[in-house]
Amino acid sequence: MSFLGNLTIAIPIWRRPNLLDATLNSIFKQNKICNVLLIDDSVSNINSSVIKKYKILSKKKNINFSVIYNKKNIGIDENIKKCINSVKTKYIWLLGEDDLLINGSLNMLDKISLKNNYPYYFINYIYSNGNFTNTARHPVIKNKGIYEDTFCNFSLNNLPYIGFIGSCIINKEKLVIENLDKYIKSYYSHVGLIIDSSINHKILIISDVLVLNRAEDINTFTWSKSVFDVYHSFFHVLENSSLKNCGDNKYKLTKKNAYNFFKIHKLSWLAAKRGDGIYNFSIYRKYYSALPFYKKYLALLIAFFPVSILFVLRKIQLFLKFYRKNIY
Q1: Among 13, 139, 160, 302, which residue carries the largest CB count within 10 Å?
Q2: How far is 302 from 163, CA to CA, in rounded Å?
Q3: Beta strands 324-325 and 202-214: pairing type?
Q4: Containing H/E element for 240?
Q5: In which residue ranges of the chain is pLDDT below 50?
Q6: CA–CA separation, 118 vs 106, rounded Å?
Q7: Residue-level pLDDT at 219
Q8: d(C-alpha 58, C-alpha 106), whole Å
Q9: Which DSSP letter does residue 49 get?
């Protein structure tokens, strides 16, 4: 059986039917097929018309398309866990309900050999604006092609990219699934699971861009207003994972590089979050009152700086970030 024959695209969905429609359309218009599973956490009928549309289409295209409805809202981490436990195939491609596959993505995956049996496959992606009309200048990994690396070497500079679930194909047979529960409610349970399952192994990197990742302004993510809790939670996951098995030096450098990626201690990032309307005195007290002397008082100043001025600067920054049209 081919790699695609062993693959299920598993999508934990909530209450964004228009985005779900676009995501499913990007999957169904591929000229290769694989299994598709939705876990609906909306506890409503909001997605019913979209799901009905693709159930009909799946029969015409001979796609194994299934849906599981949660009886109560269980949150993103529990929904990812349910995706993993519900998939029957060996490989699971976790995908957000607001991610788009690039044309030809499944063709690329169909080239993957089954013989090496990697625990984790990294899928390269590029950031897109909210309506998928513009992208960032470069994808997150700038190489091309398919190559292997040790997980520790790859994570040194690239670990934060695993936080995007659309970058993750995981091998169910290699999962240390019993470790998943300790990461629940972190927003990054899949990252902890991937670390614990891949730490002493080689992984495969598919560095041609296969996915568009919506990442624009404060309204893009369902968790945007909790961004400080979410980003700090990433480091809590790292501290409780097996990442330290890479060795003290690599562990410290990996964490340092991750801090630089998330920018959570940079004053410019705090100013951007103030412009987004989510950085304030209560966040300062929770996360930044213990910063070194000069940074502490600058962070406090930003917490009271007029939002309107920073809002305009933030819009200019985002415009400059997403200025290339339709390059994928």
Answers
A1: 13
A2: 28
A3: unpaired
A4: helix 227-240
A5: none
A6: 18
A7: 59
A8: 16
A9: H
Per the structure block, which two tokens stand in for 312? 């305009």
**What three-state secondary structure class fits 184?**
coil
Could you tell me the two tokens for 269?
């990032």
CA contacts within 13 A on the Cβ side of 172: 20
Whether 189 contacts 195, CB under 8 Å: no
Rounded Cα gap, residues 152 and 127, in angstroms: 24
Instruction: From 268, 289, 211, select the one nearest 9 (Cα to Cα).
Output: 211
In the three-class reduction of DSSP (H, G, I as helix; E, B as strand; rest coil), residue 323 is classed as coil
* Residue 217, pLDDT score: 60
Provide the greatest CA pair distance for the chain.
65
Angle between helices 75-86 and 189-198 (to 10 degrees): 50
Whether the model pTM is above 0.90 = yes
pLDDT at 136: 87
Residues shown for the chain:
328
Task: Report the distance separating Cα 161 and Cα 279, nearest Å.
Answer: 24
Cα–Cα distance, 292 to 256 (Å, whole number): 17
Q: Around 97, how many Cα atoms within 13 Å sit in the side-chain half-sphere?
A: 24
Spatial separation of the C-alpha atoms in residues 242 and 228, rounded to whole Å: 24
Rounded Cα distance, 8 and 301, in Å: 49
The gap from C-alpha 303 to its chain's centroid, in whole angstroms, comes to 28
Residue 143 has a pLDDT of: 85
199 in Cβ contact with 151 (< 8 Å): yes
Q: Are 156 and 249 in contact, with CB atoms under 8 Å apart? A: no
Q: Where are the alpha helices (DSSP H) in 63-214?
A: 75-86, 105-109, 151-158, 189-198
pLDDT at position 16 is: 93
| Structural domains of the chain, ranges and CATH numbers in brackets | 4-224 (3.90.550.10), 234-325 (no CATH)
Task: State the Cα–Cα distance between residues 106 and 29, nearest whole angstrom.
Answer: 10
Residue with tokens 């029957």: 88
Query: How far from chain centre, in Å, is Cα 59?
Result: 30
- pLDDT value of position 226: 85
In one-letter notation, the amino acid at residue 190 is H
Report the amino acid identity of residue 259: Y
Q: What is the pLDDT of residue 328?
A: 60
